[in-house]
Design a protein that fits this description.
With 350 residues, the protein is an alpha+beta fold. The chain has a single domain, classed as 4-Layer Sandwich (Penicillin V Acylase, Chain A), CATH 3.60.60.10. Helices cover 34% and strands 25% of the residues. It has eleven helices and 14 strands. The chain is globular, with a radius of gyration of 18 Å. 53% of the residues are buried. It holds the Pfam family AAT.
C-alpha cells in the first residue's frame, strides 16, 4: 500500500482523493450496494435517499467537510450524494450489520500507544487507503480507512489519535455521522476538543471512539446522540470491542453484539495485563497482541469462518499501531499474523 498525500483547500484535498482513488471509490460503492441489499434491503438509489437526512446535520456541525466530499465526488466522476452515502454507511447499515474490531490504548514508560484491528467484509480489503492530509485549516493528519470516506482510524501532528469500534444498534438521532465525527476528532488540537465532538456536536448513532493524546492520556467514549459513556484507563490501558458496557449508556441504548465481542475483550485485557507497567513496549509486541488467535474463530485476529452466513463473515483487514508520543503510525494491511511487512508514517509534532 502507498501513502496518498493530499494538501490545500478542502476542495483541493477532495479532488486529489477522488482522482487518486477513483477506481477504489467505485469499487467501494459496489461493496456497499451489496451490503445494503444484504442487511437492510436497500439498493444504492434507496440508500442515497436515506443518506440525504444526514446532510443537514453535517451542514450545521461541520460544513467544511461537505466541500471536501464534493471534491471527492468531482474527482471520482460521481455525485455528492454518492460520497455522502459512503460516509453515512454506518448509519444506514449498522442497524443490522456489525463489524468486528478490537482496540486498545496503552501507556507504558511515558509513551502513549493506540492500536486496533479493523474487521470487516473481505470484499473491502483492496479498497483500504492511507491518507496523509495537510489542509489549509487543520493540522496535518493521517487516516487509514476506506476509499471515498473522509476518515476512520488515525492520528494528527498534535499527537491526538482515534480508534473505532462498531456497535450494532437500532438507535439513530441527531449528530454527526460516525466517520465525519472521526475526521472532526482528527482535526482536534487537544484531547478536550476531541471529547467535545462527542459531548457537544454529538454522534448520531452508537459507536466507540477510543481517543488518546501524546501526553499520556486516553479515554473511551461510547458515543450516541446523547451524553457519551466515558471509560477511563485501568493499569494504563483502555480496551474495547463491539459491545457497550458503560452503565450510563447501557441503561439508555440497546445494542446487539455478536458472540465474539466479549471473548475478544477478555483476551485483550489478559494480554495487556501481562505487560509490566514499568517496562517499555514496542510495535512488535503490540502487533503480537493484534495477531492473537486464542478462542479462534472468536479471536482478536479474525479469519474466514465458514460457519457464519456468507453475508456476515468478518475478517481482519488491517492492523494499526500508533506511537502518539513520537507521532508514528505503523500499518499492516491484511491480517497482522500473516506478514511483518509494514507501512510506517511519521508526522512532525505540531
Amino acid at each position: 500500500m502507498q501513502i496518498t498525500h493530499l494538501s490545500g483547500s478542502r476542495r483541493a484535498i477532495g479532488l486529489g482523493h477522488g482522482r487518486a482513488h477513483a477506481p477504489l471509490i467505485h469499487a467501494s460503492i459496489e461493496v456497499y450496494d451489496r451490503l445494503f441489499r444484504d442487511f437492510v434491503g436497500l439498493d444504492w438509489p434507496q440508500a442515497r435517499h436515506q443518506a440525504e437526512r444526514f446532510g443537514g446535520m453535517i451542514e450545521q456541525r461541520f460544513p467544511a467537510i461537505l466541500e471536501e466530499m464534493a471534491g471527492i465526488a468531482e474527482g471520482a466522476g460521481l455525485e455528492l450524494a454518492d460520497i455522502l452515502t459512503l460516509n453515512c454507511r454506518s448509519e444506514i447499515s449498522l442497524t443490522q450489520a456489525s463489524g468486528g474490531c478490537s482496540a486498545f490504548a496503552l501507556e507504558r514508560a511515558e509513551t502513549q500507544w493506540l492500536a486496533q484491528n479493523w474487521d470487516w467484509r473481505a470484499d473491502q480489503l483492496d479498497n483500504v487507503v492511507a491518507l496523509h492530509i495537510e489542509g489549509d485549516d487543520a493540522p496535518p493528519l493521517v487516516s487509514i480507512g476506506e476509499a471515498g470516506m473522509v476518515a476512520k482510524i488515525g492520528m494528527n501532528a498534535h499527537g491526538i489519535g482515534v480508534c473505532l469500534n462498531a456497535i450494532r444498534s437500532r438507535t439513530c438521532g441527531e449528530g454527526l455521522p460516525i466517520h465525519v465525527a472521526l475526521r472532526r476528532i482528527l482535526e482536534s488540537p487537544d484531547l478536550a476538543s476531541a471529547r467535545a465532538v462527542a459531548t457537544d456536536s454529538r454522534v448520531c448513532s452508537p459507536a466507540h471512539f477510543l481517543v488518546a493524546s501524546a501526553d499520556g492520556r486516553a479515554v473511551g467514549l461510547e458515543v450516541h446522540p446523547g451524553e457519551p459513556g466515558v471509560l477511563s484507563p485501568r493499569g494504563g490501558a483502555v480496551t474495547h470491542t463491539n459491545h457497550l458496557y458503560d452503565a450510563a449508556v447501557t441503561c439508555q441504548i440497546e445494542d446487539f453484539p455478536r458472540p465474539d465481542s466479549r471473548p475478544r475483550l477478555e483476551r485483550l485485557d489478559t494480554l495487556l495485563g501481562s505487560l509490566a507497567e514499568d517496562a517499555p513496549v514496542n510495535e512488535t509486541q503490540l502487533f503480537e497482541v493484534l495477531a492473537d488467535h486464542q478462542h479462534h474463530p472468536l479471536s482478536i485476529c479474525r479469519h474466514f469462518n465458514p460457519d457464519q452466513p456468507a453475508e456476515e463473515r468478518m475478517e481482519t483487514l488491517f492492523g494499526v499501531v500508533m506511537n502518539l508520543t513520537e507521532r508514528r503510525l505503523t500499518l499492516r494491511h491484511g491480517k497482522p499474523c500473516e506478514s511483518e511487512d509494514s507501512l510506517e508514517i511519521r508526522l512532525t509534532p505540531a
